[in-house]
Write a structure and sequence with these properties.
Layout (H helix, E strand, L loop, with lengths): L9 H40 L5 H29 L6 E4 H11 L5 E6 L4 E4 L1 H18 L4 E10 L2 E7 L7 H6 L16 H11 L3 E7 L3 E9 L5
Parallel strand pairs: 2-4
Antiparallel strand pairs: 1-3, 4-5, 5-7, 6-7
Helix pairs in contact: 1-2, 3-4, 4-6
Length: 232
């Protein structure tokens, strides 16, 4: 009997990976959260009760606290993928959602240059805000929390196009090609995490799309295209 050969597109492969991650997250998330919570409590206790006797000990305690936060964020990102099931849509102003995402990510060292317009979309406001927040977080990481993030919005016929650009380290060709892959991992892609995967899922559920352009040492631009709201 002749064996059948199946050819899958990259999008189909990513969809299968998402299913695997969803099953894993639903089973393991509770235990992982408990473990990380315990480590976090230990880290906090040590920071309050232990006086470092050397600079190395101080660095190790600081690293423990930082890595616990990183691990908790990664678990949350995986859980986000499993929770993007349903949307609570309403008519909202996309400009306001972007402003809220900016406010959530303001830190010393990061400047925001904005050219925004008020435009209505039919969307889940919390989920769409998460899209912009995830992308901004990636931009901050790419610039090591120092630099300028530029955000522009333009209406093109029945679409609203938002571009978020940073002046960070950028991505090489391999990372750019695989940046939406939920299981892709390199040292260069470490900061990308699951944020882009979740952002892509949410955007596509809103009948939109995300495109990314990037050059090493020159920065990255993320374009989010969404349909504008049309009143009946």
């Amino acid at each position: 009997m002749e064996e059948k050969t199946y050819v899958f597109t990259k999008k189909q492969l990513n969809a299968e990976k998402n299913k695997v991650l969803s099953k894993f997250a639903s089973v393991a998330s509770h235990d992982l959260k408990n473990v990380v919570g315990g480590i976090s409590n230990i880290s906090y206790y040590l920071s309050k009760t232990v006086k470092p006797e050397s600079e190395t000990q101080k660095k190790m305690l600081d690293l423990l606290a930082t890595e616990v936060v990183t691990l908790n964020n990664r678990i949350t990102e995986v859980l986000d993928m499993t929770r993007v099931k349903q949307l609570n849509k309403s008519v909202c102003d996309l400009q306001n959602l972007i402003i809220k995402a900016i406010e959530e990510n303001k830190i010393d060292g990061i400047n925001f240059e904005q050219s925004l317009v008020s435009v209505k979309v039919y969307a889940d406001p919390e989920r769409m805000k998460q899209v912009f927040s995830n992308i901004i977080k990636n931009a901050k990481d790419a610039m090591s929390n120092s630099g300028t993030i530029t955000i522009t919005m333009n209406i093109e016929e029945d679409k609203i196009v938002t571009v978020i650009s940073d002046c960070g380290k950028g991505m090489n060709a391999e990372t750019l090609e695989n940046c939406f892959d939920p299981m892709f991992s390199t040292k260069l892609a470490k900061a990308v995490g699951m944020g882009l995967t979740v952002a892509q899922q949410i955007t596509e559920m809103h009948n939109g799309k995300i495109d990314i352009s990037s050059q090493e040492q020159k920065g990255t631009s993320v374009k989010i295209t969404l349909p504008t709201y049309k009143e009946d």
